[in-house]
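USER:
Before I trust my own judgement here, I would like a peer's view. Write it directly below this note and I will take it from there.

ASSISTANT:
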Amino acid sequence: MLRDIHHMLRAHLASRYSAWTWFCITFLIFLTHLLTSRYHDFYYDSSGYWFLANTFDQKGASRFSFYNFNSALRGYLLPLLHYPAAVIVREWFPDAVSEAAKIMGALWAGAVFGVAAPALWEKASGKVVNNLRRLLFVGVGFVLWRDYFNFPLSDFPSVLAVVLALLVAHRARNYWSALAAGALVAAAVYIRPLSLLVTPFVLVLLLLGPSAQTDTAGSNVSWLKQAARLGLFALAFLLLAIPQYLINVNNYQSPNLLILGLGDGDFRVNDVDNVYLFKINEGLDKQRYETNIGTDYPIPQATFLDPAGRALLERNGNPLFDSYFKYFVFVVSHPADMTALYTRHFFNGLDVLYPGPYVSRIYGSTLSLSLVNYTVLFAAFLVILLRVQQLRLRHWLMVGGLFITCLASMPLMIETRYFLPLDLLLYAVACFGWPAEWRWTTVPKHHIVSVVLAYCFFVAICLTLSSNTQASLSLKPKTLQR
């Protein structure tokens, strides 16, 4: 009996359920956790997004209008996606705001972990991902990011749009694909403006043609068809840009298609109101940020300082950069120091210490979560090291599309959510890309010993770096255990 059950279980894990089945499985896993989690309120950015969803009709006081949207910092699209739920909750379930957000969060989780990311991997690799690997991928996402889905934030929706845009562009077979790719890139941009950097990668993928054979056999698509694809991509992008343009012109007298990124004076650098400039100045002497909602830390801003960055600024007269050119000159003038600073930021971007954006216990132990994270990262880096030569141009374009926003976030004071696209890529490499022939029973023992030693060394380095960062917590140092 037990043997039959074992064989049946192995058969199910080795098979492949449909995308719809995996969406439902992932949705239910996350929803069960979210509805029983400790979080029942919105904080800071998440509260702001839900508030903006109610501004389109001024909380029912007027008819729906884009002109009612009153933020020059945020894009219109994510609040618009929340708008139907906001109206339903406001009219019929006024005490279920948190539950509505959690249901939407579980939907985002099901789409990202259950469908989109595995589908992109399958199309890029040409290999089917079985149920065991999918379950492992969902499990990793659940362990490391589960509490993000309690809140109506922009990170996972924007990443979902980017992943789907890359998927559509990679498998493009007709003009509808160009329209869909343009709309998805625009969706990512109007949810998170930095996603504009993804555009060239999606466009090149789109123009490479509909199949992998195009790479070797040469493109037979005429220039006229290529121009038509570009035109349709631009048309779809512009259609989603129209509401943002109307909002900018009517409310802020700015004929701009993009999100203005103005913070009501909160992000000024020498009278220049620019969010990104403000944040790259912050990132020179502050390496990491967490948002505290608990009682074990006295203020909401849990800032991890960068003593080396602060010393660099002091040696140069504490400059304030009110233009990108000045910042660039400073970076070029201090290559070693800035390389070290960006390396610290890169590690912090991958170092997931808490499974949610709002931390109820800053001084709680992060060791167990860190060990899971470092194990997955080690597996991913091992696969990359030994299989990177198999990547082709189309693969590099997809990697670039996922990595580019992380690269642009590297100068900032890091929040781990900024590196979410790269995290998803590395989790996929570890869970989907681990070769089936790499088994303990078939690999020579001396290779196993080498891998184990390398793993121990990797984890030791990561724990050391993480410990150093946590010790720099501004008001009171933190350790791995507390």
Observations:
- The longest strand covers residues 286-292.
- The beta strands are 268-269, 272-273, 286-292, 301-305, 358-359.
- The chain has 19 helices and five strands.
